[in-house]
Amino acid sequence: MSNNFTIINNKLHIGNILAEQLVQEFGSPLYVYDASIIKQRFTDLTSSILYPKTIFHYACKANSNLEIIRLLKAQGAHIETVSPREVEIAFHVGYKPEEIVFTCSNLSYDELAWLIGNDVLVNLDSLTQLRRWGEIKSGSSVSLRINQGIGAGHHEHTITGGIQSKFGIDREQVQEAQKIAKQYDLQIRGLHQHIGSGILDERIFLLAMEKLLETAMQFPDLEYLDFGGGFGVRYHKDEQALEIASLGKKITKLLNAFMKSYGKELVVRFEPGRFFVAESGVLLTTVVEVKRNPHKTFVGINAGMNQLMRQAMYGAYQEIVHAGSVKGEEEQVSVVGNICESADFFAREQLLPTFSEGDVLAILDSGAYGYSMSSNYNARSQPAEILVDGDSARLIRKEYVV
Ligand code: LLP
Fold this sequence. Notes:
Blueprint: E1 6-8, E2 11-14, E3 17-18, H1 19-26, E4 30-34, H2 35-46, E5 54-59, H3 66-75, E6 78-81, H4 84-92, E7 100-103, H5 109-117, E8 121-124, H6 127-136, E9 141-147, E10 169-170, H7 174-183, E11 187-192, H8 202-216, E12 224-226, H9 244-262, E13 267-270, H10 274-277, E14 281-292, E15 297-301, H11 310-314, E16 320-322, E17 330-336, E18 345-353, E19 360-364, E20 384-389, E21 392-397
The site of ligand LLP has 22 residues, from helix 10 and helix 11.
């Protein structure tokens, strides 16, 4: 199983705490995050990219719990946002405007005006946004999100580059963007791209970086380049994890070489979300029914796709563990939730430990895009969240009941 959590006496522990004890104390379903894993992942990534002017903006859409954002802020992360409310959250936890980047497609005029009024750095996603910016604040600096025609991701829904994608200004419209900028006396100071999420092939990441660097040569007055997020994590044991140390070295080399030919050391930004938080989280649930049909066995839990929707939405795999008996007899089962939808699956026909009513079933790697994508569908609650740090566990958000 995933080596992020400890197994002692065949039982799952988060930090030094028994998973079953957390359920006893706080109930289930329950999101639990291990602070030490977040800190470790932050160090893994930030210590691997050694270009000196690099800033890491945590993409808080991955997990916008205030305590998780604070934890990453304390490590030195800046923040990436995609809605005015996320910007307000960033201000609330103490970020200054210059530590926030914002990128969003289909922004309303009023939203853009609000962002400009709050001095937030926006990566403009379209020619319309650029024109509106010019109308609101001519004579200022802007940044453009470019779609270079390259996309990647763990599922087609998470690919954000290429001609099928709604995101960014198409590379063929770069000159038009420059014309609009001139018309409003705007200086293009930044270029941004984000090609997708859940990337495990470093080659595509590096290739996309090279493309943006090529484009950057057409912009003589840049101050920064933003390469987005997308660093994948290994959800399945058969997947090849990103070798972050070696990728970091390659990125550093690429950036150093580019800055030499550009003639100036630009600020470089990355916007990782998943990489920092995914592996720190686990969704603890309780088995409420085991339905042994003539041809199939369904392990029914007290959580649903409203509380963790990655499996239903992307067919995503996240490892399932029997928290009270990690290694034991196994059988072929499907793990299903309590929502009135046929997509409400957490595992399809997998060999898993034999579960009985009352057992604690843990869904690993739920720290990113778990709670943050949850809803109250079927008038079910959004689970409580707990932060574990070594021996201590504290509630960082109460269960939200509609
Ligand atoms: N920057 C921008 C502009 C983004 O759109 C995203 C993610 C990120 C940064 C952070 O990407 P990351 O480092 O986390 O890959 N719900 C999906 C993932 C959607 C990602 C959306 N944008 C999932 O559960 O796999």
